[in-house]
UniProtKB/TrEMBL annotation:
<keyword id="KW-1133">Transmembrane helix</keyword>
<keyword id="KW-0472">Membrane</keyword>
<feature type="transmembrane region" description="Helical">
    <location>
        <begin position="7"/>
        <end position="30"/>
    </location>
</feature>
<dbReference type="InterPro" id="IPR014743">
    <property type="entry name" value="Cl-channel_core"/>
</dbReference>
<feature type="transmembrane region" description="Helical">
    <location>
        <begin position="245"/>
        <end position="265"/>
    </location>
</feature>
<dbReference type="InterPro" id="IPR050368">
    <property type="entry name" value="ClC-type_chloride_channel"/>
</dbReference>
<dbReference type="InterPro" id="IPR001807">
    <property type="entry name" value="ClC"/>
</dbReference>
<feature type="transmembrane region" description="Helical">
    <location>
        <begin position="137"/>
        <end position="162"/>
    </location>
</feature>
<feature type="transmembrane region" description="Helical">
    <location>
        <begin position="42"/>
        <end position="60"/>
    </location>
</feature>
<feature type="transmembrane region" description="Helical">
    <location>
        <begin position="326"/>
        <end position="352"/>
    </location>
</feature>
<keyword id="KW-0812">Transmembrane</keyword>
<feature type="transmembrane region" description="Helical">
    <location>
        <begin position="212"/>
        <end position="233"/>
    </location>
</feature>
<dbReference type="GO" id="GO:0016020">
    <property type="term" value="C:membrane"/>
</dbReference>
<feature type="transmembrane region" description="Helical">
    <location>
        <begin position="372"/>
        <end position="393"/>
    </location>
</feature>
<dbReference type="Pfam" id="PF00654">
    <property type="entry name" value="Voltage_CLC"/>
</dbReference>
<protein>
    <submittedName>
        <fullName>Voltage-gated chloride channel protein</fullName>
    </submittedName>
</protein>
<dbReference type="GO" id="GO:0015108">
    <property type="term" value="F:chloride transmembrane transporter activity"/>
</dbReference>
Length: 401
């Protein structure tokens, strides 16, 4: 097949993938935000039902999910060629399960759903006749569309999708279709009214030798925090599976405990995505921070527990909130601007937990401003280099080259 025809197919399919995924992202994302508001308004009535909700989620996925229960793990297996197909029912099951998790107070994210649904749509539309790498290229294209449509950060989406499958190796073959799909999905969701988080900060940063050392140290702290999240997620999954072999008992018991603890600690402060903590990190009352020193670790523990128990969602938005709130707490110790350190934490904890580098750097730039790219570059590079094999994605591989 000549290259002109090849790129024609990739162009048409990427436009289609971006449009479809952008529409699904919008429906999923807008309703998820409304669910979050409903939960906040009726927390006392909804939080006690987190355990029964978990039982229903488990029943739904075990009865009808098949191999789609693997979630992100399945996408990694398809990327490696270990699995050939992604069941289309993954989309409604994952979306519904995530909506329910959030409605009843689980601490979880949303990007996992977006990336999975993007990968599912693209894989369904793939053209295997385009070559031996077509399946992987379409998968990366769909993942970029899913991430880009939900967060409306297309540059970060492109590179996150290209680098997440194998640490240290970019899937350059997917660059062209992934770029089209990410921008189309982002434009589609924006046009249809899905909110995008951006934060304008005006802090000045002079890269003196002292500041460079401070940024490197912040990179270590943020990176270790991301790794702590990844380590505890794997450890909690093993512990829960060993303690409660029956998945219904597991999610029921843990869900009941979460209901009680989520109310005791902060009266719902640590439920949902964590966007409240992100907002608090960049807003002050009478010059005082709305973030406490315990916010980052409590959000980390509640999110790890929620996902490890079997509830659905993702980890990235909670990681953003953990990083931002940790940054607010750390800034005074370093004598650096609070909002800037919060922004660096937002990106670098994500980098550490996912063992990706370019995507987190770009999401920091797209959300907070490209004028801070040297700072994002430094902290994310350091954060990613710490224990690269330790990641929230169990199916992720590390390049040996």
């Amino acid at each position: 097949m000549n290259k002109l025809r090849l790129y024609l197919f990739y162009t048409i399919d990427a436009l289609l993938i971006g449009s479809i995924v952008g529409i699904i992202d919008t429906i999923f994302g807008r309703l998820l935000l409304e669910i979050g508001e409903l939960r906040s308004d009726y927390l006392l009535f909804l939080l006690p039902f987190l355990a029964p909700c978990g039982l229903f989620i488990t029943y739904l996925n075990r009865s009808y999910g098949g191999k789609s229960q693997k979630g992100m793990e399945l996408l990694f297996e398809v990327g490696e060629g270990k699995e050939k197909d992604i069941p289309k029912r993954l989309i409604p099951l994952t979306i519904l399960s995530t909506w329910m998790t959030h409605l009843f107070g689980g601490s979880a994210g949303r990007e996992g759903v977006a990336v999975q649904l993007g990968g599912t749509v693209a894989h369904a539309l793939r053209r295997d006749s385009l070559g031996p790498h077509a399946s992987r290229i379409y998968l990366v294209t769909g993942m970029a569309a899913g991430f880009g449509g939900l967060f409306q950060t297309p540059l970060a989406a492109i590179f996150f999708a290209m680098e997440v499958l194998v640490v240290g190796r970019l899937e350059w073959r997917a660059l062209y279709p992934a770029t089209i799909a990410a921008f189309v999905a982002s434009w589609t969701s924006h046009t249809l009214g899905l909110e995008k988080f951006t934060q304008v900060i005006s802090d000045k940063l002079s890269l003196s030798p002292q500041v460079l050392l401070q940024l490197l140290l912040l990179g270590v702290i943020f990176g270790l925090t991301g790794k702590l999240f990844a380590y505890l997620l794997g450890k909690f999954k093993q512990t829960f599976a060993h303690a409660f072999v029956n998945p219904y008992v597991r999610i029921g018991v843990v869900g009941l405990g979460l209901s009680v603890l989520l109310y005791i600690f902060g009266t719902g402060r640590y439920t949902g995505l964590g966007t409240n903590l992100i907002s608090y990190s960049f807003a002050g009352a009478d010059g005082k921070s709305l973030i406490t020193g315990a916010d980052w670790i409590l959000k980390l523990l509640f999110t790890v527990t929620t996902i490890a128990a079997g509830y659905k969602g993702g980890e990235v938005t909670p990681l953003f909130s953990i990083g931002a709130s940790l940054g607010v707490w750390l800034a005074p110790f370093f004598g650096l601007p609070i909002y800037l350190v919060a922004a660096l934490g937002y990106a670098a904890v994500f980098a550490g937990a996912t063992s990706t580098t370019i995507g987190p750097i770009l999401i920091g730039c797209e959300v907070f401003g490209f004028q801070y790219w040297p700072a994002f570059l430094l902290v994310c590079l350091v954060a990613t280099r710490l224990f690269p094999a330790l990641s929230i994605y169990g199916g992720q591989k590390v390049s040996k080259k």
